[in-house]
C-alpha cells in the first residue's frame, strides 16, 4: 500500500469511507506490520515529548552556547503587548520555546525535522488550550500531519541542504495547517487546500543559519510558521481554493529546491549567514565552541 | 530498495537537537559503523563531506557521530558529552574535511573504525533529512541500505553457489529473507540481506565458517529509547 500523492490518500478515504487519520493508520499497519495500538502508543510518546519541550522552553533557563538565543520564549509569553490577542502570542512563544530547547541539545520530536520542530507542538498545544480539543483527537491530527509529511518526503525533501528552509519550516507549517483544518472539521479537500496555502507561502525559503547553528533564523521562522499554519487553515476552512492542487505545489517545491544554489542550502555560505553581522557572529561562535577536531 | 517510511519517523524521531540530518542522522551512521565493527572501537577516522564538513560544529554532528560510535541512540542525552565519554572509553578520534558534490550527497560521512581486537571497517553513509540515512559504501563496495530492518552484510569470494549456501544457512533456521542485493568487484562479492527477523549467532557462525566468506556483520534496527553497549 503506497501513498505517493495526497490525492491518492483522499481517493482511498472516499473508497473506504475513512478519514485521513485512519487512512494513515492503515498505511502504517500494512507497511510496518504493526498494530493500531502500537501506532497510537508511538503517537502518544511523540506528543508527550512535544508537550515537554514546550514546557521546558517556557519554564527553564534556556541560553544557547552561542548566546544567540536567550530565554526568548519566556519573554514573548510574558510580554504585556499583544498584536492579535493572547492566543497568537502564546502560540509564537511555544514555537520559540521548542527552538531554544532544540538548540541547547535538548530532547525534541523532529516533526518533520529538528530545525522545524517548534511548529507542530506550538500548534497542537494551542489547539488543546484554545479549542478544548481532547488529546485523543490530537493524536489523529498528528496522523493527518503525517500524511503531508509522507507525500512531501516522497516528492520533495525535508533536508535544508536539499530544499532549504522550505523543506523544513515550510513542510512543518503545511503539516500543522492540515492538523488545524482537520481538528476544526474541515473536509479532506479543505485539508489539502490548507497544505497548498502553507507551502505556497514558504516557496523558495532558503536555509541560511547564522554561524551554521540551528538558532537564527530557524527559531523565529518556526514562530512565523505557526502563523502561516493558522492563516492557511483559516483560508481553507472558509472555502477558499489554493488554485494549484497541493500535490502540484509539493512537486514545485522539489523543482525550486533543485534550482536553489547550494550556497543557500544549509552550507553557511549565503543569505543571512553571509551578511557582515552574520560573519562576525560566526567568528565569535567559533571562538566559543573550541576546536575539538581530534581526541589528542 | 527504499522501504516505505514509517509515519512515526516522519513525526519524529524523538531526538537530541539541534538537527535531524546533522545530529540524529549522524548518530545513526556512527551507530551502524559500530555494529559493523562488532568490537569495542579504539580508533575512528571520520571524513565529513560537503554540508557536513561546513556546518558540523554548530550542529553537534561531530559529537553525534562519536556518540553513535559509542552506541548512543539519537535520543540519548549522553551525545552532548560524547567526546568526554569517548576519552574515558579509550576511543581516539580524528575528523577530516572534504568536498565532492558530484560523488557524495550533501550530508556524507566516511568512517574508518578500528577495534581493540584489531579488526576494522570502512563505511560511507549519507544523512537524508529528518533523521533518515542510507549507507552507501562498505569496504569499497557500493551498497544501499538504511538498517531499518534486520540486516546482514557479507563479503565473500565471488564463486558459484555462494549465494545459495548463504541463503540456505539462513533459511535453515526459519529466518525469512525480505531483500537481497549483490555488488561485485574483480574477485569479491558484497551481499546485503534484509530480513524479517534477526539472524541468530549459530547462523552467523555457520556463514563465517564457509572458507570463501571474508566478512559477516549483523546490523540491527535502531529503536528509540534504547542505547546499546551501555555499561
Protein model, in words:
The complex is a heterodimer of chains A (296) and B (231). The radius of gyration of chain A is 19 Å and the shape is globular. Chain A is an all-alpha fold and 296 residues long. Chain A is built from 12 helices and 1 strand. Helix content of chain A is 66%, strand content 1%. The model of chain A has no long low-confidence stretch (mean pLDDT 95). Chain A has one domain. In chain B, a hairpin with a 3-residue loop joins strand 9 and strand 10. Chain B folds into 2 domains: 132 residues, 60s Ribosomal Protein L30, Chain: A; 69 residues, Alpha-Beta Plaits (2-Layer Sandwich), CATH 3.30.70. The N and C termini of chain B lie far apart (35 Å). Chain B is an alpha+beta fold and 231 residues long. Chain B contains 7 helices and 11 strands.
Strands of the widest sheet of chain B, in order across it, are: 3-2-4-5-6-7
Give the rounded overall mean pLDDT of chain A: 95
Terminal CA distance of chain B reads 35 Å
- Helix content range of the residues of chain A, please? 55-70%
User: What oligomeric state is this?
Assistant: heterodimer
Question: What is the overall pLDDT average of chain B?
Answer: 90
Count the helices of chain B. How many?
Answer: 7
In angstroms, what is the radius of gyration of chain B?
Answer: 17 Å
Instruction: Sum up the overall morphology of chain B in one term.
Output: globular
Helix content of chain B: 25-40%
What does the largest sheet of chain A look like? none
**How many whole angstroms does the radius of gyration of chain A measure?**
19 Å
Q: Can you summarize the main beta sheet of chain B?
A: 6 strands, mixed
Q: Beta fraction of the residues of chain B?
A: 35-45%
Distance between the termini of chain A: 51 Å
Segments of chain B where pLDDT lies below 50 for 5+ residues?
A: 225-231
- The tally of helices of chain A reads 12
